[in-house]
Design a protein that fits this description.
- This protein is mostly beta strands and 121 residues long.
- The protein is built from no helices and 11 strands.
- A hairpin with a 6-residue loop joins strand 4 and strand 5.
- The radius of gyration is 14 Å and the shape is elongated.
- It starts with a strand and ends with a strand.
- The mean pLDDT is 97.
Length: 121
């Protein structure tokens, strides 16, 4: 069993900052990409930021320059530093990881339970 556990969501005023963290645990042989997605009410889930094991990153255009993804491969964790938050950043944020559970197995997509981020005055 693989688990992704997120923390760090909450309520923040526009212009403020939040930091999300996610830790992967369980039966893990290797982890490929780790990242963050979000889903606002009435909208589809969208990519926010992702980082490969080698450190390559990809950000949604809407968060470039404001959000920073980081990763600790040794600890199987990924974090998202969110600065200059806007009301349109309000959403449930999901941690995602592409994981090979056992040697020789396929890669599987895993999701955290989601953490609410609300940006409002």
């Amino acid at each position: 069993q693989v688990q992704l556990v997120e923390s760090g969501g909450g309520l923040v005023q526009p212009g403020g900052s939040l930091r999300l963290s996610c830790a992967a645990s369980g039966s893990i042989f290797s982890i490929d990409a780790m990242g963050w997605y979000r889903q606002a009410p009435g909208k589809q889930r969208e990519l926010v930021a992702v980082m490969t094991t080698g450190g390559r990153t990809n950000y949604a255009d809407s968060v470039k320059g404001r959000f920073t993804i980081s990763r600790d491969n040794a600890k199987s964790t990924v974090a998202l530093q969110m600065n200059i938050l806007k009301p349109e950043d309000t959403a449930v944020y999901y941690c995602n990881a592409v994981i090979q559970p056992d040697r020789g197995s396929a890669l599987y997509n895993y999701w955290g339970q989601g953490t609410q981020v609300t940006v409002s005055s």
